[in-house]
Design goal:
heterodimer; A: 111 residues; globular; B: mainly beta; seven-stranded mixed sheet; four-stranded antiparallel sheet
Chain lengths: 111, 118
C-alpha cells in the first residue's frame, strides 16, 4: 500500500463546477504539500500546510492531522485549471526535500 | 528573482552511456533536491544536497549520484544508462534542508530534464 493515496485518479468536470481532490497518508508528517503539474512537466507548489486550512483565490486546502487526510477544493473551476494535482508529504523527522508523493489526480475541465 | 533552472531540457542517450544533468537553484537557496518521475512509479525522491553535502538519499541504485557546488548549483549523474532510466528528472530548491530549523520550507521546482534512453 502506498504511503500517500489520492482519489480520484482522473476527474472530468464542467466549467464552473466545484471540485474536490482527496489525499490520505499513513506516515507521521511535518507538512503536506499540494502541487500542480501542467503538460510539459513543470511543477508549481500550490499549498504547504501542517494544520487547518489555507486559501489562495479559488483554491482551498484543508488538512485533518488526526485523520491523516487532506482535501484540495477548486471553486468555480475553469479550463485553465486542467492539470495533474499531486499530494506530497514531508515525513516527520525527515529532511526538507525528502517528499513522498501520491500518484496524482488528472483533472480536465471542459468549457 | 529568477526561478530554478535545469539544463538540458531534453536529452536522448543510448543504453550503457552516462549522463549529467544540471540544476541552478533560486538565488539564496542552499538546498537542492532531485526527483525522478516516470509513468509507472510517479514521482520519487532521489537525493538532497545542502552546503555541498548529501543530506538524504532515496532508494535508487548507486548508478545515480550527485554533487553540489559552493554556489549551490547541483549536478546529478547516471552511469550505465538503462531503458528504465527514461524519465523526467526534476530538481527543486529550498532555503534550508533540516525541517526543524524553522521549517518546513516551500520547495520550488525547476522545469525538468526529459531523458530518453534508447
Amino acid at each position: 500500500k502506498n504511503e500517500v493515496e489520492q482519489s480520484p485518479q482522473n476527474l472530468t468536470a464542467q466549467e464552473g463546477e466545484f471540485i474536490t481532490i482527496n489525499c490520505s497518508y499513513s506516515v507521521g508528517i511535518s507538512a503536506l504539500h499540494w502541487l500542480q503539474q501542467h503538460p510539459g512537466g513543470g511543477i508549481v507548489s500550490l499549498f504547504m500546510l501542517s494544520s487547518g486550512k489555507k486559501k489562495h483565490g479559488r483554491l482551498i486546502a484543508t488538512i485533518n492531522i488526526q485523520e491523516k487526510h487532506s482535501s484540495l477544493h477548486i471553486t468555480a473551476s475553469h479550463p485553465r485549471d486542467s492539470a495533474v494535482y499531486i499530494c506530497a508529504v514531508s515525513p516527520s523527522g525527515g529532511s526538507q526535500g525528502n517528499l513522498i508523493f501520491g500518484k496524482g489526480t488528472k483533472l480536465s475541465v471542459k468549457p | 528573482k529568477a526561478g530554478v533552472t535545469q539544463t538540458p531540457r531534453y536529452l536522448i542517450k543510448t543504453r550503457g552511456q552516462q549522463v549529467t544533468l544540471s540544476c541552478s537553484p533560486i538565488s539564496g537557496h542552499r538546498s537542492v533536491s532531485w526527483y525522478q518521475q516516470t509513468p509507472g512509479q510517479g514521482l520519487q525522491f532521489l537525493f538532497e544536497y545542502f552546503s555541498e553535502t548529501q543530506r538524504n538519499k532515496g532508494n535508487f541504485p548507486g548508478r545515480f549520484s550527485g554533487r553540489q557546488f559552493s554556489n549551490s548549483r547541483s549536478e546529478m549523474n547516471v552511469s550505465t544508462l538503462e531503458l528504465g532510466d527514461s524519465a523526467l528528472y526534476l530538481c527543486a530548491s529550498s532555503l534550508v534542508s533540516i525541517i526543524w530549523t524553522g521549517g518546513p520550507y516551500e520547495q520550488y521546482f525547476g522545469p525538468g530534464t526529459r531523458l530518453t534512453v534508447t
